[in-house]
């Protein structure tokens, strides 16, 4: 299991204004710590914006918090704060707090206090670089928090290799005592398999009171959020640690190697979902499906196919082998996309065949069209992208080039290697051939 380096999520960036709560906060609240640079990533990009299966890590954490029932989400930003704000700027339930110094996870949580104002209730606290968190265990924590009346609940995990994580200390009766960070742990404590993956539910304002008592007497000289539960216990408050998280849920991303491992696990989840829904994936190991894609039943995905972005594939389709469906592509039912075909921002009508070596970009293709080998919609003129419309029942010959903007009518035929130049449309039922394409007229007596 991968290490959880808490300091990576508290690195400060350039200062931005702290937002203060001006309206009533809807609970439950989720706080996501996302201020870290992630130095081991060696990147100018905010750590939480590195992608797993096509989406930034923080997208999965935000969605997990929402799925668990959070109605207001406070994202703590720091390094490359503007990047994170820009990514989440259109989401009305997301607020931001600024961590402007490297003072630890406790400080990162504390900067949310002005944003949350007088809110009283449960606050789910997560880190933004654990993209494999699922909403189910988080919802369980929120439910148990309400049922058990605890001031703090910790979601823990049992790991075969706990290296890098804080350990959960319990008494002889199994009751929670405290968390010890690995760098501060004794050899005996490091042998403990139950770990703290930085997943909490705190009652507010109890958390603020506990954080006021947290000091910096540790190896890092930082304010540890992990010290807050022990302080709550000394204050007579109830604290529980529940092992509700699976090993895969708590994989933290601190390096490019970790990013690849998280992607592999997420990809397996995505493919397992679609196979359960009735999709055949011939070779999952050689197939990539973006987390935003949707696929209909009885579709077959052949090896070495790449489905990237917000792609919608209908039922009874065939994709691949070696096909590339890019963001914005829609395949209606019964479409066949064959070997070495690339489709980009295009809508392909039902039962259309694009079987090999073709490129369709910014195209609207009707039903029952047959697109020949190496046919291309030339959608980019060097400055702008342009659209191509191909009517139902048309035949686009092998090697044909449609220079956009272009329109091919219903039942039309574009001959092999023909070039339909910009602005020269092909009418319904017409046949065009040549370079530039011109209407084909049969001579008297010609078969």
The chain-level structural class is: alpha/beta
Biggest sheet record: 10 strands, mixed
* Strand order of the biggest β-sheet: 14-17-20-23-26-29-32-35-37-38
- Which range best describes the helical content: under 10%, 10-25%, 25-40%, 40-55%, 55-70% or over 70%? 10-25%
How many β-strand stretches? 38
| C-alpha end-to-end distance | 72 Å
CATH superfamily of the largest domain: Spore Coat Polysaccharide Biosynthesis Protein SpsA, Chain A
Tally of structural domains: 2
- Count of separate DSSP helical elements: 9
Mean pLDDT: 92
Radius of gyration: 28 Å
Using the coordinates shown, work out and report the CATH topology of the largest domain.
Spore Coat Polysaccharide Biosynthesis Protein SpsA, Chain A
The CATH architecture classification of the largest domain is: Alpha-Beta Complex
What is the CATH top level name of the largest domain?
Alpha Beta
Uncertain segments of ≥5 residues (pLDDT<50)? 1-22
Beta-strand fraction estimate: 25-35%
Q: Give the overall form.
A: elongated
């Amino acid at each position: 299991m991968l290490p959880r380096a808490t300091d990576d999520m508290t690195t400060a960036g350039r200062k931005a204004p702290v937002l203060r709560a001006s309206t009533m906060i809807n609970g439950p609240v989720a706080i996501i710590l996302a201020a870290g640079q992630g130095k081991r990533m060696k990147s100018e990009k905010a750590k939480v914006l590195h992608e797993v299966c096509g989406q930034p890590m923080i997208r999965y954490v935000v969605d997990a918090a929402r799925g668990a029932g959070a109605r207001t989400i406070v994202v703590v930003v720091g390094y490359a704060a503007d990047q994170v704000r820009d990514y989440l700027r259109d989401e009305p339930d997301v607020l931001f707090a600024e961590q402007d110094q490297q003072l630890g996870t406790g400080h990162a949580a504390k900067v949310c206090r002005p944003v949350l104002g007088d809110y009283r209730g449960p606050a789910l606290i997560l880190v933004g670089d654990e993209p494999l968190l699922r909403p189910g265990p988080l919802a369980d924590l929120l439910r148990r928090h309400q049922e058990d009346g605890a001031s703090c609940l910790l979601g823990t995990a049992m790991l075969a290799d706990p290296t890098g994580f804080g350990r959960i200390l319990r008494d002889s009766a199994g009751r929670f005592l405290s968390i010890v960070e690995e760098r501060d742990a004794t050899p005996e404590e490091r042998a403990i398999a139950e770990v703290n993956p930085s997943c909490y539910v705190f009652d507010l304002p109890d958390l603020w009171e506990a954080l006021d008592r947290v000091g910096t007497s540790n190896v890092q000289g930082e304010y540890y959020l992990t010290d807050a539960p022990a302080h709550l216990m000394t204050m007579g408050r109830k604290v529980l640690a529940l092992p509700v998280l699976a090993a895969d849920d708590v994989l933290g991303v601190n390096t490019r190697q970790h990013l690849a491992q998280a992607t592999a696990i997420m990809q397996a989840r995505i493919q397992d979902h679609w196979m359960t829904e009735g999709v055949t994936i011939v070779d999952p190991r050689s197939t990539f499906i973006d987390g935003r894609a949707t696929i209909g039943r009885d579709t077959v995905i052949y090896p070495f196919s790449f489905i990237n972005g917000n792609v919608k594939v209908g039922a009874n389709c065939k994709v691949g082998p070696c096909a590339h469906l890019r963001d914005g592509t829609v395949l209606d039912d019964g479409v066949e996309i064959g070997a070495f075909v690339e489709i980009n921002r295009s809508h392909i009508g039902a039962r259309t065949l694009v079987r090999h070596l073709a490129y369709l970009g910014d195209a609207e293709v009707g039903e029952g069209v047959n697109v020949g080998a190496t046919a291309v919609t030339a959608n980019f003129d060097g400055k702008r992208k342009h659209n191509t419309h191909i009517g139902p029942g048309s035949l686009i010959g092998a090697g044909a080039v449609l220079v956009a903007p272009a329109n091919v009518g219903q039942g039309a035929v574009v001959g092999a290697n023909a070039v339909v130049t910009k602005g020269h449309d092909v009418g319904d039922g017409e046949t065009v051939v040549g370079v530039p394409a011109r209407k084909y007229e049969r001579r008297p007596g010609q078969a």
